[in-house]
Task: inverse folding
């Protein structure tokens, strides 16, 4: 069991590929008085990820690693161990982790996905929900396993699809819910480690 008190917060890493809005949200949550985790490392597989600016802003270590070879993966694993990372959060991370990597962090990787899983795994979730005339979409926080977007669901939030919704408007409303859901789900999981 991982213990956390005010001084020894659980060290987590956040993996990003893009804008990093969920990263920034998790950082802000981690700064709260009652937070039990600290973001010690941010990894991006994209050198141009806009979200990397938050590393400078909040003084968080960052690494760029495409994780596209066994060697890159080994480098990353040893860096995570070196920094005593206990948990990983994927936040808009657009790369599939290898089975070996997932096995090393079994039960200690979370992801947030912009649909009500098991519906619409993978990409273009908002488009698929609108085109299929779904009444609801939403977001899901789940554990990562070796099958894409198929790990055990921790929590979900439904979002009503409005008649005049576009991909952008739906995405914006779902993202707001992601920002509420992800920190709560992370805290719930960390308390049960």
Result:
């Amino acid at each position: 069991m991982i213990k956390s008190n005010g001084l020894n917060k659980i060290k987590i890493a956040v993996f990003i590929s893009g804008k990093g809005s969920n990263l920034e949200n998790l950082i802000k949550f981690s700064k709260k008085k009652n937070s039990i985790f600290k973001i010690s490392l941010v990894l991006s597989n994209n050198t141009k990820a806009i979200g990397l600016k938050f590393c400078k802003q909040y003084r968080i270590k960052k690494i760029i690693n495409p994780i596209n070879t066994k060697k890159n993966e080994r480098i990353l694993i040893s860096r995570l161990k070196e920094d005593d990372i206990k948990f990983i959060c994927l936040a808009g991370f657009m790369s599939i982790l290898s089975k070996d990597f997932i096995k090393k962090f079994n039960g200690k990787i979370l992801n947030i996905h912009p649909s009500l899983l098991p519906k619409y795994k993978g990409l273009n979730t908002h488009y698929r929900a609108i085109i299929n005339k779904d009444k609801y979409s939403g977001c899901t926080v789940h554990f990562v396993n070796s099958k894409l977007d198929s790990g055990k669901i921790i929590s979900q939030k439904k979002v009503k699809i409005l008649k005049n919704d576009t991909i952008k408007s739906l995405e914006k409303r779902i993202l707001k819910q992601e920002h509420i859901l992800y920190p709560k789900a992370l805290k719930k999981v960390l308390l049960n480690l």
